[in-house]
């Protein structure tokens, strides 16, 4: 996913002993290049990305992890497996835009000046200003 979406940011801190996990949707993908062929080395994540409620979560999308994450043979040969923690730390613009589109279509309201949501005269402040 990170290869096809350049706005996604990886953690890249020094890896710990925790093994990265993948959800059912992302199962079998290389963590770096999304390849499904020749998994070779386990992907390890840093201690911060595996702490508390993040423990056992998917490295790519954040869902419930069911299998171990691997790097493909090509990424290991290019030494991309040594760049640090591969966990995606932000949502990306596509998922953020989807949130705001759903918000606008479901409520039937509008976003006014200052990034405020207006519906039936009540103003609910959004998490961030939509531009």
TrEMBL record:
Organism per entry: Durusdinium trenchii
Top-level lineage group: Eukaryota
Protein name: PHD finger-like domain-containing protein 5B
Family: Belongs to the PHF5 family.
């Amino acid at each position: 996913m990170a290869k096809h979406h350049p706005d996604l940011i990886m953690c890249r801190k020094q890896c710990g002993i925790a093994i990265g996990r993948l959800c059912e949707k992302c199962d079998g993908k290389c963590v770096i290049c999304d390849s499904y062929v020749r998994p070779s080395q386990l992907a390890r994540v840093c201690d911060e990305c595996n702490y508390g409620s993040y423990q056992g979560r998917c490295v790519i999308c954040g869902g419930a992890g069911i299998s171990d994450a691997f790097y493909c043979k090509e990424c290991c040969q290019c030494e991309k497996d040594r760049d640090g923690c591969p966990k995606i730390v932000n949502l990306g613009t596509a998922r953020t835009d989807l949130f705001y589109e759903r918000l606008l279509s479901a409520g039937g309201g509008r976003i006014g000046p200052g990034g405020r949501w207006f519906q039936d005269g009540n103003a609910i402040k959004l998490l961030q200003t939509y531009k």
